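worker-03 picked up job from queue 'complexes'. Input manifest follows; two sequence lines, order preserved.
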Amino acid sequence: MVWQASDCLDTRATMTKSELIQQLAENNPHLYQRDVERIVTAIFDEIGAALARGDRVELRGFGAFSVKRRDARAGRNPRTGDSVDVEEKHIPFFKTGKQLRERLNEGL
Amino acid sequence: MAVQTVTRAQLSEAVYQEVGLSRNESAELVETVLEEICKALVRGEMVKISSFGSFAVRRKGRRIGRNPKTGQEVPISPRRVLVFRASHLLKDQIDAALSGRKEAGPA
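worker-03 finished. Artifact:
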């Protein structure tokens, strides 16, 4: 199934990392903005580092990040039909937590 | 090596090491960051974390599903799902570390 832009609830409304940092800094006036920035960066760096070790990151109520292994396979160049070797690869995966899934569907 | 599970505790520890806050406050901040992201998603916003990835909420329409055990048709009502797309940086970081490991060790 192909996703379209209209599938998103609001395609224009986006919170970027810097907007997240700004919001957190506003709600926590006792912290310097640069410290908030270091905190947010530390969290996502830690998740990335865990995944790079092959570990799972489980955040109850939010979701779980894990790594899935895709075996090496013989693929095909869709344009020419030539057979090409696709190497084994590891890809990150996210499963939404139960609580967040429920919150997203409240009042639907 | 066995897969370990990282939880809020390790994220709080990382925050604690990074900034001069108490362990308690570090744990609270991890919670606050996750909650702020959840709130944006519940509002229907997309959340983009550069060099990590993006979270987007998608709307799915009603469809007819099937109970795989009984074969019985069941209606699946419209719902919202969260999708995560890892950034190329994160994908490359993970793949280089895990798929490249074989070359590093003795064959």
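worker-03 released lock.
Residues 50 and 87 of chain B are 8 Å apart (CA to CA).
Chain B touches chain A through 60 residues (CB under 8 Å).
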